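Here's my example:
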Amino acid sequence: MSAVQLTIGMVAGEASGDLLGAHLIAALRAHLPEARFVGIGGPKMESQGLDSLYPMERLAVRGYAEVLRHYPGLVRMRRKLKLALLAARPQLFIGIDAPDFNLGLEAGLKRAGVPVVHYVSPSVWAWRGSRVAVIARSVDHMLTLFPFEAAIYAKAGIAATYVGHPLADLIPEQDQTASARAQLRIAPERKVIALLPGSRQSELRYMADTFIATAKLLAQKIERPLFLVPLVSRETREIFEAALYRADAGELPLTILFGHARDALAAADVALVASGTATLEAALLKKPMVITYKMAEASWLLMRRMGYLPYIGLPNVLAGEFVVPELLQHDATPENLAQALHNSLNDSMLRARLPQRFAAIHRQLKCNTAEQAARAVLPLLARAAA
């Protein structure tokens, strides 16, 4: 099959999907060195050779209110993208996460005869379980990152493969604190708090002020604190710096990093993390954390009514219980967050027990994900090429 010129469509909608897509492209190229990749992705996928037709940032919208505001533009873009992909005549389409955008695109491509894989299950186990029926109409094969998800799709008659999580492959199982602190030139005696308010501009607008107010309160409770704030883009940095100015927080012992989220987490004693993939990254680095999130009030009310689980953070979902605190929306006050972080810093039993729980999760998710995902889609490509 490697001698056949193949075109593979791919769409990722945010930084975590860009990472997944880049690793999958690299793994597929090992089997199909001449394959062409076209769709939407970020810098990591583009560096692996993806021809990105639109900026990935245009898809990085979260929450019902935000999606509704951008909905007409997203629909127009999806319609044009579908036509462009059909013109490219792909043998396979792989939608990476971004279900609100990708499932509609996938349904149209599947109706047109293009085999469709969706990589990263939507959180149907947490909320909106009715999406399984939509997925059945839109997708030929689901690639899941978590072990309990494949059974959900098997029960619904949807082909699915558990491939593990790539972060579990990338992050060493051994403690990285000393090496990360040496790399960032942080003295061992400093108390390091990683602040991860999100990768999207919309997330920073909702949470930057709260994160800074929390840091100001926590700085009064501990000696020699250092706050590390990794931000992914110039735009998110500008939003955070504007919040620093509003809070008159120029004296706060805080360092903004361009990227380097993993280094910040590895160096930290505790982390305040916006819910999402970063919470899993913190768990794989065996770090205590407090999970938080804020969004538009309309979005929050809708999501709260549709939720099935008492927790939203991936470490708690994978553990099946609250192993780290979650403070969301109205509970996410600077006072509550600062107290929860202070408790995590000073709870010696938690700091001894938590790494063991996270190590078990790490071993479960470590599966050589990119190669497993490539091997799952190669038969689909072989049938399409034939």
